[in-house]
Specification:
By secondary structure, the protein is of the alpha+beta class. It contains 7 helices and 15 strands.
């Protein structure tokens, strides 16, 4: 019990300091999770680790070059994972997260260097792999090469529930707002200009065209099919589930106005195309310079959704120990 009290104390003390900057860094690493496979694999990856877990067939870990692209994955093929530069903290978010922005996830503990030292990671799988399978392989890699030991204390009764906003359907008949429509299965021919883009399912190349692949049981609900993110004067979501809607409302532009993260409680599982017209401030701390409705009102009027104060459980991962990586 004494160890658990210590863990809870560390989480509470560090949540607004170390975890906050880690979460901000994770926002910029989140898109990596969706770019690790060109399509869903027809057959599951074979287990290659001694414990029967998914693992890369060949993998290398080394210090990142000073000029390497930070916090991105660059997969040249469906079975290869290449990360030019990420800290161990960012790698943990990528490997153990949900594939999206991980806005309901917190990583705490561990030595200081896991926040500052960047590594280049490359792994080659035995065959094509889904994003979820590659995340599992990355978990195995981190545990083997970094001697990473973590504890997920999310379900522990000693960890208090957090104040969140629950995203629910506003109307009793389930009708959504005028700026929401069921996704038609296509992406726009011209990619919109977006920032803070959500990680998304990569397009498939068929001959000289890039198309949206067929839906698969291997798809992650956290990954939209089409470009999704903030735009000038609002937000656009395309081929996205309500899980992604809640995550977009949890990113700095919206969170600064709402005061906390949002979690999906709509019960809806379809994918949608959604537009939100709202002048998000250029700086998250600045209030919007207009006399229009609040963000929660805009969500209600345009999307037919309501933001309700609630309690929610965060996924809290405690890094118990980690070592600088062993040789390749």
């Amino acid at each position: 019990m004494g160890n658990m009290v210590t863990i809870v104390s560390r989480i509470q003390m560090n949540l607004h300091a170390r975890v906050t900057r880690r979460w901000v860094a994770a926002v910029f690493t989140a898109a990596a999770s969706a770019l690790v496979a060109a399509s869903a694999a027809a057959d599951p990856q074979r287990d290659t680790s001694a414990e029967g877990r998914l693992a890369f067939e060949v993998a290398t870990v080394k210090l990142a070059a000073a000029d390497a692209v930070r916090n991105r994955m660059m997969p040249p093929s469906p079975n290869r994972l290449y990360i030019p530069s990420m800290t161990l903290t960012a790698l943990i978010y990528t490997a153990y997260g949900d594939g999206g922005f991980n806005t309901s996830m917190r990583v705490t503990g561990g030595p200081d260097w896991i926040d500052t030292t960047a590594f280049a990671v490359e792994g080659v799988a035995a065959g094509e792999a889904t994003p979820r399978q590659l995340r599992l392989m990355l978990q195995t890699l981190l545990e083997e090469r970094f001697a990473l030991k973590i504890r997920n204390v999310s379900e522990t009764a000693d960890i208090p529930m957090d104040d969140v906003l629950a995203l629910v359907v506003d109307r009793s008949d389930g009708t959504l707002g005028p700026k929401v429509k069921k996704w038609d299965g296509t992406c726009p021919p011209v990619m919109p200009v977006l920032y803070l883009q959500a990680p998304r399912r990569p397009l498939q190349k068929i001959k000289d065209k890039f198309v949206v692949g067929a839906a698969s049981e291997a798809d992650d609900p956290a990954l939209p099919y089409c470009p999704t993110g903030y735009r000038a004067g609002g937000m656009r979501l395309d081929g996205a589930t309500m899980f992604t809607v809640a995550e977009m409302l949890s990113l700095p532009p919206a969170r600064a106005l709402l005061g906390t993260i949002t979690q999906d409680r709509t019960g809806l599982t379809d994918r949608y195309t959604m537009e939100l017209d709202y002048p998000f401030p250029a700086a998250p701390a600045a209030p919007p310079e207009f006399a229009g409705p609040s963000l929660s009102t805009a969500v209600q009027e345009q999307w037919g959704l309501r933001l309700v104060p609630s309690k929610g459980r965060l996924e809290v991962i405690v890094v118990e120990s980690a070592q600088r990586p062993t040789g390749n």
